[in-house]
C-alpha cells in the first residue's frame, strides 16, 4: 500500500515567540521530525502543508512573515512536495487530492497542528476520499479552548479530538508505535 506522510502547518507561528503558540509544539515537532526522517530514509512520499491566512482580520500565518515559514525541525527539502492552503481542510481548494491520486497513495500518516482544527478537518476529509489514515497523536499539538465560560485544557482538547477520530476516521497511534511496528 502506498503511504504518504502529511505534515500539517508545522510553522513558526505555532512555536514559542510565534503569534499563536500551541501547547507542546516543540515536542510534537520533534516526533514529526522522527517520522519525517523515517520517510526520507525509506524514500517514501512526503507532503508538507503550509497554511497562509488570507481572511480579513487574520492574526497569524500572515503572508510574507516569518510566522508562515516551516519550523526548522521539519523544514522541507527542495524536492519534497509543499502544498499551500487557506482553510483548515488541507484538501479544500488545493492540489492535495490530485497529487495523492497521481502518486497512487492509499494511506496517509497525518501529523501537525492544530489537532482540533486542521488535523481534524484533514483527517475527516481524507476518510471521505477513502484514504486509510493514521493520526500520530504525539506528533500533533493544540491549545486550550473555552466554551460557555469554561476553560478546556489543551490536553483535554487534544485527547477529545483524537478520541473522536480514532477507529472510524483514523487509527490514532504514537510515533513509537508507528516506528516500532513499521506501519507503512
Description:
With 184 residues, this protein is α/β, with parallel strands linked by helices. Helices cover 31% and strands 23% of the residues. The chain has helices at residues 25-41, 96-102, 115-128, 154-165, 175-181; strands spanning 3-8, 46-51, 81-85, 107-113, 132-141, 145-147, 150-152, 171-173. It has a 6-stranded parallel β-sheet with strand order 3-2-1-4-5-8. Helix 3 (115-128) packs parallel to helix 4 (154-165). It is globular. The mean pLDDT is 96.
Which regions have little confidence, pLDDT < 50, spanning 5+ residues? Answer: none
Q: Work out the oligomeric state of the chains in this entry.
A: single chain
User: How big a fraction of the residues is strand?
Assistant: 15-25%
Q: What shape does the CA trace take?
A: globular
Please outline the helices and strands.
Layout: E1 3-8, H1 25-41, E2 46-51, E3 81-85, H2 96-102, E4 107-113, H3 115-128, E5 132-141, E6 145-147, E7 150-152, H4 154-165, E8 171-173, H5 175-181
Parallel strand pairs: 1-2, 1-4, 2-3, 4-5, 5-8
Antiparallel strand pairs: 6-7
Keywords for this structure?
two-stranded antiparallel sheet; six-stranded parallel β-sheet; 5 helices; globular; 184 residues
